[in-house]
Amino acid sequence: MSKQILLIFTAIIFGSFNSFSNEIIEKDSSKSKTISFKIKLKSADKIKIVVSSLKYNKHFAYSFTLDDGYRSAYLTAFPLLNGGKISNSSINEWKIDQGGDGTTSEGLFYSDGMGNKIPFKLGLAINGASIRDLPENRGHLSWSEVKEMYNAGWDILNHSFHHFTKLGTNFLTEVTENTISIKQNLNFTMSHFVVPGGEGDPNYRYEYENNALENGHFSVASYTGVGPMLKVDSKVNLDKMITARTFVLSSKDTTNFKTMDRFLKTVDSIAKLPNPNWYNEFTHGTGNGNLWNLSMRFPDFKYYMTTLADKYGLKGNDSIWMAPWQEVYEYIWLRDRIKVDFQQKNKEITVTIQLPKIPEMFRNRDISLNIETRSKFEIESSNDLKIKNDGKTNHKLILIQL
Ligand SMILES: [Zn+2]
C-alpha cells in the first residue's frame, strides 16, 4: 500500500471511529429516574433495607480473565465452567496441546441466594486482528466462539488490535481499531481495557492507559495500579481506574497441585476477611500444554476452578460472586450512585430508588438489596420492574433487574 493510500485509509478509520464515539454519547440517554415498588409484610415487623455491597449479597467477588483470545478458552475453560464436553487433546498450529481431558462437565456454580444456580463466568481480553476461522488447528478463537461465550455472560475486554507493544506502535489506533473490529463483528462496544504485555519501551503502558481511558474505556488493567484486591465495603473510586494485573500460572512441576494450592491460599485469605472484597486474577491459555509458559495447564486450571467451586460455590458455603470484570465493575458503579428510600406503614413499605444516568455500554443494571425483617414478605410492583426476592423463604434478599 502506498503511503498516500494508507493515509486515506487511516483517515477513514479515524473518521468512522469519531462519529462512532459521538453516537455512543448521544445514545447514552437512559436518563436519571426514580423507580418504586411495595413490600407487603406477612406480619407487622420493623424493616431495614440497605443496598448490598455485592450482587446477591455475596461475601466476595472474584474476577478471572483469560488474555489473548486463545482457543483453549472455548475448548476447555468454557465447557468446564458453563457445562459441556471438554475437548480431548488438540495439538494446535504452534504444536502445543490446547485441548483438555475429554470429560463432560456439569458446570461450576454459585447461587443467587434465591434458589437459582449461576455458572462461573470469566472475562476474555481479545485482539481483533487474531480472531479467525482457519486453519482448523488455529491457536486463536473464532468470532462465533467469542460470540457464544459473550452470549453466555462472559465479558469481552479490549486487549489492543494486534497486541503490539514495541517502539513505533500507534497506541491510539491499537485501542480504537480493536473497538471497531469487535463492534463490526459482534455488535457490541467494549468498555474496559487490558494492556497487552510484552517487550517494549518501559513507558509504553502509559500510552495504552491514556489512550484507552480517553477513548471510551472505564478502566485499564495494567502493570501497576490499585488491586488486585479491592475493598468494596464503602464507595469505590472507579473513575478512570487503573488496576494491577496478577497472573495465575502453572509451574514446571506437573506431579502435584502445590503451585495451585499456593494461589488458592491467597484467595482463601481474601474469602475469610470479615468485609466484602473484590479480587481479580489473570492467565493466558487453559489447555493441556503450558502455552508460552504463561498459562495454566488444563489439569491445574480444572483443579483450581473446581476447588473454588467446591469451597465457595453452590457445593460449598456459596459465598463467592464469580463474575467477570465488567459485571462486577458495573454493579459497584450503580450501587454507589443510587439512592434508596423507604417508608413503612404497618405491614406496607414503599421503596423508592433514584437512579443515575446509566452509560449505554453497560451490560448489567442490577441492584441487590439486603432486607432485615423477621417477617416473610411479598413484592407488589405497579410497573414492569423485574424483581426477584426470597420473601417467602429467607426474607433477606431483593434483586431488581433494570
Ligand atoms: Zn496479552
Task: Summarize the model shown.
This protein has 402 residues and is of the alpha/beta class. The chain is 28% helix and 24% strand.
Structural summary, described in words:
- The protein has 402 residues and is α/β, with parallel strands linked by helices.
- The protein folds into three domains: 1-30; 33-47 and 337-402, no CATH class; 57-325, Alpha-Beta Barrel (TIM Barrel), CATH 3.20.20.
- It is built from eight helices and 21 strands.
- The strands form six sheets. Strands 3, 8, 9, 12, 14 and 15 form a six-stranded mixed sheet that branches. Strands 16-17-1-19 form a four-stranded antiparallel sheet, with no helix packed on it. A four-stranded antiparallel sheet has the order 2-18-21-20.
- α3 links the parallel β8 and β9 (155-158).
- α2 packs parallel to α7, α4 crosses α5 (204-214) and α6 (258-271) packs parallel to α7 (298-312).
- The protein starts with a helix and ends with a strand.
- The model is unreliable at 1-29 (pLDDT under 50).
- Residues 67-68, 159, 163, 196-197 line the site of zinc ion (ZN).
Give the H and E element order: HEEEHEEEEEHEHEHEEEHEHEHEEEEEE
CATH class of the largest domain: Alpha Beta
The tally of domains stands at: 3
Shape summary: globular
**DSSP summary: helix tally:** 8
Counted beta strands: 21
Compute the gyration radius: what is it? 22 Å
In the CATH scheme, what's the topology name of the largest domain? TIM Barrel
Roughly what is the average pLDDT, rounded to an integer?
A: 92
Small-molecule binders here are: zinc ion
Low-confidence segments, given as residue ranges, are 1-29
Q: Helix content range of the residues, please?
A: 25-40%
Main beta sheet strand tally, sense and closure: 6 strands, mixed
| Estimated structural class | alpha/beta
What name goes with the CATH superfamily of the largest domain? Glycoside hydrolase/deacetylase
Which CATH-level-2 architecture of the largest domain? Answer: Alpha-Beta Barrel
Give the termini distance in whole angstroms: 49 Å
